[in-house]
Specification:
The complex is a heterodimer. Chain A is α+β, with helices and mostly antiparallel strands. Chain A has three domains: 162 residues, Rossmann fold, CATH 3.40.50.300; 92 residues, Elongation Factor Tu (Ef-tu), domain 3; 104 residues, Translation factors (Elongation Factor Tu (Ef-tu), domain 3). In chain A, helix 3 links the parallel strand 3 and strand 4. Chain A is globular. Chain B is α/β, with parallel strands linked by helices. Chain B is built from seven helices and ten strands. At the A-B interface, helix 1, strand 1, strand 2, helix 2 and strand 3 of A face strand 1, helix 1 and helix 2 of B. The structure holds guanosine-5'-diphosphate. Guanosine-5'-diphosphate (GDP) binds next to loops of chain A.
Chain lengths: 372, 277
């Protein structure tokens, strides 16, 4: 692999003059396929870093060996942990520009380890690299022969992917209700003469089998899974991440935004909850006005009823009861929603524990939140 | 950094033993996106280009909504320079799927003065956007689904999956909505719309593998003979009349021309992902 994957695009980027957003790049090795969400370091565009991080399996933070950790490095490490990335890799770059590289690298990685260990990652690692010379990116180099760990690519080929690790209780946010009526059947589907009502969605966690007992929230109605439909026909069992259509045996009232859950392990049902939010918008939070919260397929009105604390990402100290939130602030808040929501804590479920905040006058996504 | 599961590999710890490949992951993501557009938007166009990417999106839509008919209008922006096979293919799909089709032509935009060509030989493709924007406002679409992919070019690499267009139909790359998790925000004011790209994360190779796995019919011209391909970022890009032939005329050092049969990689055994009862 040549380094153009990481650097070529940047030249074009400068020509384009858009250096502020996430650039997605794709590559594969015999072991794996990768998607890189290359995000800007600049503080002003933290929201774009969060965009890239929210779907990532692993975070690579790049620092310049000459400058060491920056406030932005800490902010990005904090946010990587906040969105639930279990592993973070610090790539100490431009090693070709420092003398006594070993000492410089040891100092930076030690500093980073002590900061990141407080954040609760499963694994924190560092690699000394020179992107310019390719040292420790794919192959090791003479220049950094004191380093004996994996190269960046070796690390990426071995690190667990999220889909491999998942487990958990069955959660199925209903995206759409499909009724076959009024001639809206797909020609040739074999359902032309059938009565049909199903619930379309993607399994957020756990798995589901035909015959299993489920509960529909927030109504609490119980039912059994009568069928699991895909475009290839009916199946017996479906796993996390599968996009399917569920059929239930009881005639229950279900609409978009409802959550079908394992009957044995139900989520929380509340209209007031604590969350950690990252504020993205240029316009500060106005805690007097209502916002829209999008949680799974539901969109509800909600107010910030309490601003508990703001996090200083440099020191990890908490500033109590801030008056408002401005762009890039990370804060512990309490929200009160107009309707009851069915949710899990984000640490237990990355789908049912996450929401975004929308300003209903501008329609902009102004914040993202994880339920505590 | 996001890692898709390895093709054909069984996931350890997955007691069900259900196989989950990178194509399954990409397909599930696209289906989620298509269902989300259908749920959030009221008047949706699916853009038909005649190319393989739009054929893949059409197939994904069929699978996403099965057994319901695709709840979108198929829209073809006709440059007037189509191959007859492409038109025949389009009309056959529309009939088979029971879709509503609208065609708006660049030729009409030229005749009514909305598009001015400098001379007759000027390519019409760049003018499609005028016809497209006019069609969106004429027909009142609040969302348009396209088959663009992020690996196609550098600016595309930065575009969101749900990409906002203002009332002038413009994309502002410097002020995109954050797109966190899969919580897509498709809210627009009247006159604005959202472009949706369900196969944003697919590479050229993924598209060809999926076409093979799903046996997606393409207009004849894709399959006529052993064909030339160019190697580009590790993908084999077949050279057809619909991809830019300029790469062949002026091969740079980066693009190596080789000739291979269309079977690009061994098919993944479709084992027990679906177990009929
Ligand atoms: N000497 C040296 N320069 C590097 C290295 N990696 C990147 N650079 C240079 O640093 C500059 C900024 O790099 P860039 O990737 O654009 O940084 P970004 O703005 O953080 O994405 C460019 O001129 C690169 O050529 C390295 O390992 N060694």
């Amino acid at each position: 692999m040549d380094l153009s994957l990481l650097t070529d695009g940047l030249l074009a980027e400068r020509e384009q003059g858009i250096t502020i957003d996430v650039a997605y790049r794709y590559f594969a090795t015999p072991a794996r396929k990768f998607i890189i969400g290359d995000s800007p370091g600049h503080a002003q565009y933290t929201r774009n870093m969060v965009t890239a991080a929210s779907t990532a399996d692993v975070a690579i933070l790049l620092v310049d060996a000459r400058h060491g950790l920056q406030v932005q490095t800490r902010r990005h490490a904090y946010l990587a942990r906040w969105v639930g990335i279990p592993r973070v890799m610090l790539a100490v770059n431009k090693m070709d520009l420092v003398d006594d590289g070993r000492q410089v690298f040891d100092d930076i990685s030690e500093q980073f380890n002590s900061f990141a260990s407080e954040l609760g990652f499963d694994e924190v690692s560092s690699i000394p690299v020179s992107a310019l010379r390719g040292d420790n990116v794919v192959e090791r180099s003479h220049a950094l022969d004191w380093y004996s760990g994996p190269t960046l690519l070796q690390y990426l080929e071995a690190v667990p992917a999220r889909h491999d690790e998942q487990a958990g209780r069955f959660r199925f946010p209903v995206q759409r209700v499909v009724r076959i009526a009024d001639g809206n059947v797909q020609p040739g589907s074999g359902y032309e003469d059938k009565q049909f009502r199903g619930y379309q969605g993607t399994i957020a966690s756990g798995s589901v089998c035909v015959g299993e007992e489920v509960v529909v929230l927030p109504s609490g109605a119980k039912a059994k899974v009568a069928g699991i439909l895909t475009a290839d026909g009916e199946i017996d069992e479906a796993i996390t991440d599968a996009a399917v259509t569920l059929l239930l045996d009881a005639d229950v009232d279900i609409s978009r935004g409802d959550l079908v859950s394992a009957a044995a392990a139900v989520p929380y049902l509340r209209n007031e909850f604590d969350a950690e939010v990252c504020w993205f918008d240029q316009q500060p939070l106005d805690s007097l006005r209502p916002y829209l919260i999008k949680h799974g397929g539901t969109t509800v009105r909600a107010r910030f009823s309490l601003l508990r604390h703001r996090v200083d990402v440099d020191t990890l100290k908490l500033e109590k009861n801030p008056a408002s939130l401005v762009m890039n602030d990370i804060a512990g808040v309490r929200l009160r929603s107009q309707r009851t929501l069915a949710f899990d804590a984000y640490r237990d479920n990355r789908v049912t524990g996450a929401f975004i905040v929308i300003d209903d006058t501008s329609n902009r996504t102004v914040a993202a939140g994880t339920i505590s | 950094m996001n890692m898709l599961s390895e093709p054909g590999r069984f996931n350890e710890g997955d007691v069900s033993g259900i196989d989950w490949s990178h194509l399954d992951a990409l397909e599930a993501e696209a289906i989620f996106i298509l269902r989300e557009v259908a749920a959030q938007c009221s008047n949706v166009a699916l853009l038909f280009s005649g190319g393989k990417d739009s054929a893949v999106v059409l197939r994904l839509a069929k699978r996403a909504f099965f057994p319901e008919r695709i709840p979108f209008t198929l829209m073809h922006i006709d440059t007037g320079h189509n191959f007859p096979e492409v038109i025949a293919f389009r009309d056959r799909i529309v009939k088979e799927r029971g879709l509503r089709l609208v065609v708006r032509s660049v030729g009409d935009s030229i005749r009514n003065g909305r598009v001015r060509l400098r001379d007759e030989s000027e390519p019409r493709n760049p003018h499609q956007s005028v016809t497209l924007l006019d069609a969106i406002s004429e027909l009142g679409f609040d969302a348009c689904i396209g088959g663009a992919r992020r690996d196609e070019e550098k600016a595309r690499a930065k575009e969101r999956i749900f990409s906002f267009r203002d009332e002038f139909g413009q994309w502002d790359p410097k002020n995109q909505r954050p797109e966190i998790w899969s919580l897509y925000n498709a809210r627009v004011a009247p006159g604005e719309n959202i472009r949706v790209f369900p196969i944003s994360n697919w590479t050229e190779l993924d598209v060809w593998q999926y076409i093979r796995r799903q046996r997606i019919p393409l207009p004849e011209l894709y399959f006529s003979h052993r064909r030339q391909v160019v190697r580009r970022n590790g993908s084999l890009v077949p050279v057809t009349d619909l991809t830019s032939p300029r790469r062949l005329v002026m091969p740079s050092k980066k693009y190596k021309c080789v000739s291979v049969p269309l079977a690009i990689s061994p098919a993944r055994p479709r084992s027990n992902r679906v177990r009929p009862r």
